[in-house]
Amino acid sequence: FLGLAVYLGLTGLQRQLFGLRPLDFAYWGAAITLMWASVEKWAYPHWSFPLLQEHPRLAMGLDSSFYMTAAGAVEFALAFALLWTPLIRRSAAILLAAMFVSAIFEFGKIDAIGHLMIIVILVSIAVDNKPDTKRNPVLFPVYYFSAVVCTVAAYYGAHGMLV
User: Fold this and answer.
1) How far apart are CA 5 and CA 137, in angstroms?
2) Contact call for residues 34 and 79 (beta carbons, < 8 A)
3) Would you say residue 13 has pLDDT above 90?
């Protein structure tokens, strides 16, 4: 929501900040939020076990622990992809939006209301036509590994400080 707040503020003021467009803040905010949430699936998979028992189709017949680990890995990879090249960013945004929209059919209007803003941001990312500087694909593993380490460290560090 912080990325969305910056987006709305900059859009209302018709400004850029640090040379970044308002939408850039929205997709960075979405990416960081989703990477953070994916770590939660690794740290506290048992929080979702009652949900998986109530909706067994979600796990697709997989063991609940394995499913939560895999779901966290997929969500982290797609969230990180929101920060990469335009084609990869758009593809990840479409896949994530499809996942959030498909959850509405399973969980109803409460889920629709709760995820509406992230769906709107993901659709905005998918249709964004901003040209982007080319990134060296050889460096992708380095950036990805760094993002995993930093996000996990920040998550557990914040948890340790709060508990």
Assistant:
1) 32
2) yes
3) no
Q: Are 59 and 67 in contact (CB under 8 A)?
A: yes
Token pair 């340790």 is found at: 160
75 CB-side CA count, 13 A: 20
CB 9 within 8 A of CB 25: no
- 115 has a pLDDT exceeding 70: yes
Q: Which of 102, 79, 84, 90 is nearest to 33 (CA)?
A: 79
Q: Cα separation of 56 and 2, whole Å?
A: 34
- In this prediction the pTM is 0.86
Distance CA 43, CA 161 (A): 16
Residue 49 has pLDDT above 70, yes or no: yes
Q: Which two tokens stand for residue 126?
A: 């998918």
87, amino acid identity: L
Cα–Cα nearest to 80, from 135, 140, 127, 124: 140
Which of helix, strand or coil describes residue 32? helix
